[in-house]
């Protein structure tokens, strides 16, 4: 418990939202292709994680302790945290799955770059060891806060690794807007059809939400942005935003390194404040619609709006 703050920080950095809010702007201004790959891989892997959770179910430790009725005589003292009370099913771990996929994209690109410049196998080996350490740290943090069982973390890490390897070969750079519109609709309709089909078969897909509300120690730790449909709208919005960004400015803005650093600072601040804007949680449809718009804006802020503004400032200074 003395390291609780450190584990909470690790689980925050492993949150799927971190791929869009933190890693994407940093990587994009270092390598456009890898930055686009981060959004692409994060959206697809989180969507597939949602589908797998609906199919595989999976308990979460913080509610399983009470629901299992194995500890009636000597109930353990369960310590929960604000990040504990997620409302979706537990298998596989979304944090582990998205982290595994996204960090593979980032570190494999870094390893390839270093190897092409230095021809050092030691440096590339260190990066791949760092990849394993990151997965272990995120997995332990999820177990520590009672959000997942160990096997769920392992399943998420392995699935994310395979997705990262596969999707990194098909990055939609310079693709037409239609591709992203169809991808967005495919993700949305695919998930909704699966949801409808499972409900028609008598599967109650809201079972995990009711358990989370029952066993979470503080009701305000139940957040709308942790629900399954929030991740769906986030992924669809990011996918559409990625297409719109490449449609408005194909190839992006050509900027030297100094203006890129300014773009990174401004983009990070912009994404931070956009993410902080409170959204109405009722009715749910309004929340999901605004959440969709929020993540549609984010790729455009990083790839079009901020670089365009900085480009305008730097060209004026040169004149």
UniProtKB/TrEMBL annotation:
<keyword id="KW-0472">Membrane</keyword>
<keyword id="KW-0812">Transmembrane</keyword>
<feature type="active site" description="Proton donor">
    <location>
        <position position="95"/>
    </location>
</feature>
<comment type="pathway">
    <text>Carbohydrate biosynthesis; gluconeogenesis.</text>
</comment>
<feature type="binding site">
    <location>
        <position position="60"/>
    </location>
    <ligand>
        <name>substrate</name>
    </ligand>
</feature>
<feature type="binding site">
    <location>
        <position position="142"/>
    </location>
    <ligand>
        <name>substrate</name>
    </ligand>
</feature>
<protein>
    <recommendedName>
        <fullName>Glucose-6-phosphatase 3</fullName>
        <ecNumber>3.1.3.9</ecNumber>
    </recommendedName>
</protein>
<dbReference type="GO" id="GO:0005789">
    <property type="term" value="C:endoplasmic reticulum membrane"/>
</dbReference>
<feature type="transmembrane region" description="Helical">
    <location>
        <begin position="96"/>
        <end position="114"/>
    </location>
</feature>
<feature type="transmembrane region" description="Helical">
    <location>
        <begin position="126"/>
        <end position="145"/>
    </location>
</feature>
<dbReference type="Pfam" id="PF01569">
    <property type="entry name" value="PAP2"/>
</dbReference>
<feature type="transmembrane region" description="Helical">
    <location>
        <begin position="151"/>
        <end position="167"/>
    </location>
</feature>
<dbReference type="InterPro" id="IPR036938">
    <property type="entry name" value="PAP2/HPO_sf"/>
</dbReference>
<dbReference type="InterPro" id="IPR000326">
    <property type="entry name" value="PAP2/HPO"/>
</dbReference>
<dbReference type="InterPro" id="IPR016275">
    <property type="entry name" value="Glucose-6-phosphatase"/>
</dbReference>
<keyword id="KW-1133">Transmembrane helix</keyword>
<feature type="transmembrane region" description="Helical">
    <location>
        <begin position="179"/>
        <end position="198"/>
    </location>
</feature>
<comment type="similarity">
    <text>Belongs to the glucose-6-phosphatase family.</text>
</comment>
<keyword id="KW-0378">Hydrolase</keyword>
<feature type="transmembrane region" description="Helical">
    <location>
        <begin position="286"/>
        <end position="310"/>
    </location>
</feature>
<feature type="transmembrane region" description="Helical">
    <location>
        <begin position="6"/>
        <end position="30"/>
    </location>
</feature>
<keyword id="KW-0312">Gluconeogenesis</keyword>
<feature type="domain" description="Phosphatidic acid phosphatase type 2/haloperoxidase">
    <location>
        <begin position="34"/>
        <end position="168"/>
    </location>
</feature>
<dbReference type="GO" id="GO:0004346">
    <property type="term" value="F:glucose-6-phosphatase activity"/>
</dbReference>
<feature type="active site" description="Nucleophile">
    <location>
        <position position="148"/>
    </location>
</feature>
<keyword id="KW-0256">Endoplasmic reticulum</keyword>
<dbReference type="GO" id="GO:0051156">
    <property type="term" value="P:glucose 6-phosphate metabolic process"/>
</dbReference>
<dbReference type="GO" id="GO:0006094">
    <property type="term" value="P:gluconeogenesis"/>
</dbReference>
<feature type="transmembrane region" description="Helical">
    <location>
        <begin position="37"/>
        <end position="57"/>
    </location>
</feature>
């Amino acid at each position: 418990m003395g390291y609780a703050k450190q584990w909470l920080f690790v689980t925050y950095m492993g949150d799927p939202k971190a791929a869009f809010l933190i890693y994407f702007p940093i990587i994009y201004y270092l390598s456009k292709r890898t930055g686009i790959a981060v959004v692409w891989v994060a959206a697809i892997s989180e969507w597939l994680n949602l589908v797998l959770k609906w199919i595989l179910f999976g308990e979460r430790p913080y509610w399983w302790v009470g629901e299992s009725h194995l500890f009636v005589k000597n109930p353990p003292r369960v310590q929960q945290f604000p990040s504990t009370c997620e409302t979706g099913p537990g298998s596989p771990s979304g944090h582990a799955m998205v982290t595994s996929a996204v960090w593979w994209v980032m570190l494999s690109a870094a390893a390839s770059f270093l190897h092409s410049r230095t021809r050092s196998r030691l440096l590339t080996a260190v990066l791949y060891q760092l990849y394993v350490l990151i997965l272990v740290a995120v997995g332990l943090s999820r177990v520590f806060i009672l959000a997942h069982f160990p096997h769920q973390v392992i399943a998420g890490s392995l699935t994310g690794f395979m997705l990262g390897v596969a999707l990194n070969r098909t990055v939609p750079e310079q693709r037409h807007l239609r591709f992203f519109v169809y991808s967005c609709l495919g993700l949305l309709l695919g998930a909704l059809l699966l949801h409808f089909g499972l409900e028609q078969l008598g599967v109650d897909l809201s079972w995990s939400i009711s358990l989370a509300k029952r066993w979470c120690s503080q009701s305000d730790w139940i957040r709308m942005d942790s629900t399954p449909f929030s991740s769906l709208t986030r992924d669809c919005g990011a996918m559409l935003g990625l297409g719109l960004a490449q449609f408005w400015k194909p190839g992006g803005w050509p900027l030297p390194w100094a203006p890129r650093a300014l773009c990174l600072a401004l983009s990070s601040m912009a994404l931070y404040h956009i993410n902080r804007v409170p959204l109405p949680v009722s009715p749910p449809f309004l929340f999901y619609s605004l959440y969709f718009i929020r993540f549609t804006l984010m790729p455009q802020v990083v790839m079009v709006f901020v670089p365009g503004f900085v480009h305008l400032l730097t060209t004026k200074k040169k004149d």
